[in-house]
Amino acid sequence: MSSKKKSMVQPEINIGTLGHVDNGKSTLVQALTGIWTARHSEELRRGITIRLGYADAYFYKCSSCEAPQCYTNKEKCSICGSKTDFLRGVSFVDCPGHHSLMLTMLSGAALMDGALFVIAANAKFPQAQDREHLLAAEMVGIKNIVIVQNKIDIVSKDRALDNFKDIEKFIEGKSIEKSPVIPLSAHHSVNLDLLIKTIEEKMQTPKRNALADPAMQVLRSFDVNKPGTHAENLTGGVLGGSIIEGEFKKDDEIEIRPGIRIDKSGRISYEPLYTTIEDLHIGTGLVDKTGPGGLVGIGTLLCPSITKSDGLVGSIVGREGKLPDTLNKLTLDIQLFERAVGTKEQTPVDKIRSNEPLVLNVGTSVTSGIITSAREDIIEMNLKRPICALINNKVAVSRRMGDSWRLIGFGTIK
Questions:
Q1: Which pLDDT value is given to residue 105?
Q2: Which of 143, 157, 210, 373 is the most exposed place for a label (fewest CB within 10 A)?
Q3: Domains defined for the chain, CATH in brackets
Q4: What are phi and psi of 312, to 5 degrees?
Q5: 3-state secondary structure labels for all residues of the chain
Q6: Can you name the residues that pair with 358 across neighbouring β-strands?
Q7: pTM recorded for the entire structure
Q8: What is the pLDDT of residue 108?
Q9: Would you state the pLDDT for residue 48?
Q10: Contact at 8 Å (CB) between 101 and 50?
Q11: What are the residues whose beta carbons fall under 8 Å from the beta carbon of 263, sequence distance 6 or more?
Q12: 283 CB contacts (<8 Å, ≥6 apart)?
């Protein structure tokens, strides 16, 4: 068993939360991490996740107790009082469940190594967003999924069993058919030990190349200065995200693409940004270097006006001259679904047409564009906002249906 302290390590894996808006995803993340991820004022007012939330958990195991009670998120065993052995750190990406925020969820899915598919025992299942989130997870290649049957504390045993049968029926024949189903109450922290045990067994830390040229997809960006801070005391902008491969170190010179939007006499362009890493943050504090896995924060010398309010979300960070080119046009090998995801009517998906507007999710970037050419399985489009795409990035394709953008397929950049 590892003797490492949590203060010495960064989280090794990113785990997302999927499922309908009222299934208790944020409550579950809070039970595991001690952090309520909905920090934005509108989130607090409405009681839902709007922006991607994030929080770190640290898992331990008591060598004196039996499974699953020996698994915990505490440094002391609540059963026998013994000091527990540290297992690993985990970063949670809390995704919004409301259908109007599906594009935000897809950005978070790009960073997930595994996911908790959260279902409410007191609600009809499946909801439209349950289908949508599951298909999105399959599309971006998330294979390690644990199903969480939440809110068992507010239903009868018979109702919980009926809900469980609905879950079994829904997953039959799907990629998650063999995924474990964990009944629990996030509100009362019931069965969290079994969930932690299952995560440890089901979601192994993926192998990553720490020696490759580093690249980080930006999930959030911030101005961390308080209003009224004097200019001489300002702190540079902060970038939050997950390192895909390689390592970043303090004082590294970095490049950010596609960069900053420039408006010259009505002509819009994007120029890369160049800066220095001032400091590196993980959940437990400052470190001198960070590698792949978990969510990290990069403190920079950038003007905080550039990074405030998620201004650089969707960008990619790397060493100078090592990032892919910025793309203003895309050619995609496209695969359409039979039916639009998330529509109650299960609306059939028509072929993509020339001059049609579409929204694309590429990694953590969201952009829109107009189709310039549409053939059977190849489309070409001009982008409203350019992207910087890593190799093997899948592209989620959404079409306007009614008052929402609906997922209709996915593509591969050619």
A1: 52
A2: 157
A3: 6-202 (3.40.50.300), 215-319 (2.40.30.10), 326-413 (2.40.30.10)
A4: -115, 15
A5: CCCCCHHHCCCCEEEEEECCCCCCHHHHHHHHHCCCCCCCHHHHHHCCCCCCEEEEEEEEECCCCCCCCCEECCCECCCCCCECEEEEEEEEEECCCCHHHHHHHHHHHCCCCEEEEEEECCCCCCCHHHHHHHHHHHHCCCCCEEEEEECHHHCCHHHHHHHHHHHHHHHCCCCCCCCCEEECECCCCECHHHHHHHHHHHCCCCCCCCCCCCEEEEEEEECCCCCCCCHHHCCCCEEEEEEEECCEECCCEEEEEEEEEEEECCEEEEEEEEEEEEEEEECCEEECEECCCCCEEEEECCCHHHHHHHCCCCCEEEECCCCCCEEEEEEEEEEECCECCCCCCCCECCCCCCCCEEEEEECCEEEEEEEEEECCCEEEEEEEEEEECCCCCEEEEEEEECCEEEEEEEEEEC
A6: 369
A7: 0.85
A8: 53
A9: 35
A10: yes
A11: none
A12: 10, 11, 55, 56, 89, 91, 294, 295
For residues 359 and 366, is the Cβ–Cβ distance under 8 A? yes
- Where do we find the tokens 């949508």? 132
Tokens in use for 407?
């997922």
Sheet holding 181-183, edge to edge: 71-72, 53-61, 85-94, 13-18, 114-120, 145-150, 181-183
For the four alpha carbons of 263, 265, 266 and 268, in that order, the dihedral sign comes to negative
User: What pLDDT, in 10s, does the model give residues 10-20?
Assistant: 888 999 888 87
The conformation of residue 348, written as its DSSP 8-state character, comes to: B
Torsion of CA 405, 134, 96, 366, to 10 degrees: -50
3 state SS of 325 = coil
φ and ψ at 94, to 5 degrees?
-90, 110
Contacts of 189 (CB under 8 A, 6+ apart): 31
pLDDT lower than 70: segments of the chain: 1-8, 21, 37-52, 95-110, 342-344, 391-392
The tokens 């900053």 sit on which residue? Answer: 260
| 255 vs 243: CA distance, rounded Å | 14
DSSP lists the bridge partners of residue 267 as 264
